[in-house]
Design goal:
The complex is a heterodimer of chains A (about 700) and B (about 160). Chain A has 19 helices and 24 strands. By secondary structure, chain A is of the alpha+beta class. Chain A has 3 domains: about 150 residues, Aldehyde Oxidoreductase, domain 4 (2-Layer Sandwich); about 160 residues, 2-Layer Sandwich (Aldehyde Oxidoreductase, domain 4); about 270 residues, Aldehyde Oxidoreductase, domain 4 (2-Layer Sandwich). In chain A, helix 2 packs parallel to helix 3, helix 10 crosses helix 11 and helix 13 packs parallel to helix 18. The longest helix of chain A is centred in the first third of the chain and has 28 residues. Chain A is globular, with a radius of gyration of 27 Å. Chain B is of the alpha+beta class and about 160 residues long. In chain B, about 30% of the residues lie in helices and about 20% in strands. Chain B is globular and about 50 Å long. The chains are: A alpha+beta (about 700), B alpha+beta (about 160).
């Protein structure tokens, strides 16, 4: 393999074959720095390793991120686990096979070129040998660079489906960090300030709290407050006592409108990209602004972590997306050397971006410091989860299109948004929420946007997929009273929604077919291919249109560099708005795990439908007002659409990732179905009955 | 305050010493080390803690152990008994019906309570029943497919 310009990041920090794969128990133990977040990445990575080693997948084990053992692959995010992590593992496991075969060639006195591996046994020409790859591996030096030996075979044509190794325990076992136990385990509770300016009253009666049954420690540092107890029941009981008495200071009750604050901010609108000829001087044909509210990650489990301080060393078990960045930030926040901190990834609830996992890890570290030598487990309350986890950014995207018939002659996309990434270590700051409240505070600092090389943050997918000249600009607003960070797709959901909504408005005005109108502006062959196939694949939806039931489509290529998705949504307007059916055609390059990819796409569709129809964080001043599921409803079982997915066959093409590619096109497809039914676009998400009534009466 | 409280879990008699107001969820997880029953919200909103008590799906997070003396509790651990895998578990695994799986034990138990009533069910009826449970990863379609597979296996699919 030519390991040249694009070395997967994992191979830079972990360059040796032995960093990734070692013989173990008659088979191989594979290591990854990618976190299994429920997305099924372990299953996909095991498939890649089994293809390259040519061994049955059952003879492999895989272990996840651990700063003491695994490669440093940064953050598991951005639909890059297969694109980057899979390619690194593919190179490393192929190198292991090459090295073992070199040893086999020596023993058999054969040329390595005549040797191959089948079901874990070395084959010489067409003849089976007695040599087992895993046995050879115990006698080969694997402490050599991957880059010197990698020779990937790629996916075999007869690759079989494999089962996810972790699902059974996720159904009936105890695999989550919430379930972990250890000798002498203690149980924590914390009381996160409800806003970034809230302060604990100085005269808080901690003495009475200390005397509650089972309390081992009460920790107050500035406005950080927590307790450690001998049992869950005692921790819960003391927590209830605290919660009924806590009165926060410093909360500004004045109403806050995020969209008005974004608009009013004096932050500059910066040019991100100018492609093609100069913008026309006349008025645009279409000029519309779409908005989305703050979204909650709303994981099924509140964030949790476990920590232990012993002899000046801190060990943390966490469902973080990045054990190494978390370790660095914890070391910095706690005044420790990085080597004195170990972070181990343990399963948590589904992760759709930068949720509360890192913050709760800092919280439990602060609690554990008060009880050295004893492990502490901390699970946030459901209210704390809603109120204090980073929010998906509220934002606004204005799209101007200059049309010549159905042809786009120019466009301008202007995005206004708070930051989409405030992960630990951003701009060199720890970025832990609790850190900002300590008596020696570690404040949040101005967060930059995600750089273009990582696919942009606010401006992700702000460049339309269409051919026309375009100007993209972005205003990054950093001083809102809410903490925002990465949520599935970052800016892509709203940007794709706004672009596709604007184009649909132009096509409706010109009485154009949604497919023909788009194809007339597209030369990208893979974009055209998904769109063409959707026209057939969604045929059943198109034939069922009535006065209050119709279909719409949305199209994007995620980040401009990832997977393509063309989506059709079937929308029924009645007492409420429903999406009974969704059809997806996706091109995600090589598909490693077909069922896993379909599962991720289906999940992306349903989550995006939930955002689009239901979700908005409600605010009371700067406080998140909705602290339970009744106040933050998500799509229930009875409203879930029938989702059919068609994935293009692209063997030999690089894998492009799939988990985030559909969120923008799904939102756009729903919106465009509504727009075609009503003749008017819904510019503010979520698309609710209330918004539809308002839009129709304003039109 | 603490007193002995006896009930049955997955067919076995158990006795714990606890405050009668202790939630069944905490008793299962911390006193009995049966951790497949999970905390989601503590307010009967999400269903992650669903178990079966005397044949009915109940929220373990708000059910006091003092109120279930002598009653029979089934948890998700019971789906994988010695020499017996419940058709629901078989179907969920076959369909890879889940992503993070945190919601699944509760969903499996609520589905089991429904299917074991013997009432013939269709997909719509199952979905309606599972509205008591939330899933955030978007595995709903597979989950409904898997419940219907199990319903067919158990002879209760309409």
């Amino acid at each position: 393999m030519s390991v040249d310009a694009k070395i997967p990041p994992g191979l830079v920090s972990a360059p040796l074959v032995s960093d990734w794969v070692q013989p173990a128990g008659g088979g191989f133990a594979v290591r990854t720095g990618r976190a299994e977040l429920g997305q099924g990445v372990k299953s996909a990575l095991l498939r890649i390793a089994s293809w390259e080693l040519c061994v049955p997948v059952e003879t492999l084990t895989i272990s996840g991120p651990d700063t003491a053992a695994s490669p440093d692959e940064g953050i598991t995010a951005g639909s890059l686990s297969i694109t980057q992590g899979g390619e690194a593992l593919r190179a490393a496991t192929s190198a292991a096979r090459v090295l073992c075969l070199a040893e086999a060639a020596r023993r058999l006195n054969a040329s390595p070129d005549t040797l191959s591996v089948r079901d874990g046994l070395v084959i010489n020409g067409d003849d089976k040998t007695e040599l087992k790859l895993a046995t050879l591996a115990t006698e080969v030096d694997l402490n050599v660079p991957v880059a010197d030996h990698a020779a990937p075979l790629g996916q075999p044509e007869d690759a079989k489906e494999t089962a996810r190794p972790d699902l059974r325990e996720r159904m009936i076992g105890a695999p989550f960090v919430h379930d972990m136990t250890m000798t002498g385990l203690l149980f924590g509770r914390v009381f996160p300030p409800p806003t970034l300016t809230a302060r604990l009253p100085k005269d808080l009666d901690l003495h009475s709290l200390q005397k509650k049954p089972g309390i081992v420690a009460v920790v107050r540092d500035g406005s950080f407050l927590g307790l450690v107890a001998n049992s869950v029941a005692e921790a819960d009981s003391a927590a209830t006592w605290v919660e009924t008495r806590l009165e926060w200071e410093g909360i500004d009750p004045a109403p806050q409108d995020p969209q008005a604050l974004l608009e009013a901010s004096s932050a500059p609108m910066e040019l991100m990209l100018a492609a093609g000829s100069a913008e026309p001087t006349e008025q645009p044909t279409i000029d519309l602004t779409c908005q989305r509210p703050f979204l909650s990650h709303a994981p099924m489990a509140p964030s949790a972590a476990l920590a232990k301080w012993e002899d000046g060393k801190l060990s943390v078990w966490s469902h973080t997306q990045g054990v190494y960045p978390l370790r660095k930030a914890l070391a910095s926040a706690c005044g420790l050397a990085e080597e004195a901190v170990q972070v181990v990834h343990v399963y948590g609830p589904g992760c759709y971006g930068h949720n509360g996992a890192d913050d709760v890890a800092m919280d439990v570290a602060l609690l554990a410091r008060a009880v050295p030598g004893q492990p502490v487990r901390l699970v946030w309350s459901r209210a704390a989860e809603f109120q204090t986890a980073p929010l998906g950014a509220a934002m606004s995207t204005r799209v101007r299109l200059w049309m010549n018939g159905r042809q786009i002659s120019a466009g301008r996309v202007s995005v206004t948004s708070p930051p989409h990434s405030t992960r630990p270590g951003t701009a060199g700051a720890p970025f832990f929420r609790s850190g900002t409240f300590l008596s020696d505070p570690q404040p949040f600092i101005k967060a930059p946007d995600v750089p273009p090389a990582s696919g942009h943050g606010a401006a992700r997918n702000a460049r339309p997929i269409y051919d026309a000249p375009v100007l993209v600009e972005r205003k990054l607003v950093n001083d809102l009273p809410w903490r925002t960070s990465a949520l599935r797709g970052l800016g892509a959901q709203l940007n794709v929604y706004a672009i596709e909504t604007a184009l649909e408005a132009a096509l409706i005005a010109d009485r154009q077919d949604p497919f023909e109108g788009r194809l007339a502006n597209l030369t990208d062959p893979r974009a055209r291919a998904v769109l063409e196939r959707l026209r057939t694949f969604g045929g059943d939806l198109m034939s069922d249109s009535t006065e209050d039931r119709g279909w719409g489509i949305g199209l994007a290529r995620y980040k401009g560099t990832g997977g393509w998705a063309a989506v059709m949504a079937d929308v029924a307007l009645g007492d409420d708005i429903r999406v009974p059916r969704v059809r997806v055609v996706a091109d995600i390059g090589e598909v490693i795990d077909p069922d896993g990819a379909r599962n991720q796409i289906e999940g992306g569709v349903i989550q995006a439908i939930s955002w689009t129809l239901k979700e908005a964080v409600t605010l009371d001043g700067a406080r998140v007002a909705g602290t339970n599921w009744e106040e933050y409803p998500i799509l229930p079982f009875s409203e879930v659409p029938d989702v059919q997915t068609d994935i293009m066959e692209r063997p030999g093409e690089p894998p492009l990732g799939c988990a985030e590619a559909v969120v923008g096109p799904v939102t756009a497809a729903v919106g465009n179905a509504v727009q075609r039914l009503l003749g008017v676009a819904i510019q503010s998400l979520p698309i609710t009955r209330h918004r539809i009534v308002a839009a129709v009466s304003a039109a | 305050m603490d007193k002995p409280i006896a009930f049955y879990v997955n067919g076995e008699p158990v006795e714990i010493k606890a405050n009668p107001s202790l939630s069944l969820l905490t008793a299962l997880r911390e006193d009995l080390n049966l951790k497949a029953t999970r905390f989601g919200c503590g307010a009967e909103d999400c269903g992650a803690c669903s178990v079966i008590v005397d044949g009915k799906a109940r929220y373990a997070c708000t059910l006091a152990v003092g109120d279930i003396t002598g009653q029979h509790v089934l948890t998700a651990e019971s789906l994988d008994a010695k020499n017996f895998e419940h058709p629901l578990l078989t179907a969920f695994l076959a369909r890879q019906a889940g992503q993070c799986g945190y919601c699944l034990s509760g969903i499996l138990m609520r589905a089991r309570a429904l299917l074991e009533t013997g009432e013939p069910v269709d997909r719509r009826r199952v979905a309606q029943e599972l509205d008591a449970n939330l899933c955030r990863c978007g595995a709903h379609g597979r989950i409904l497919d898997a419940v219907m597979d199990a319903a067919a296996e158990m002879g209760v699919a309409k």
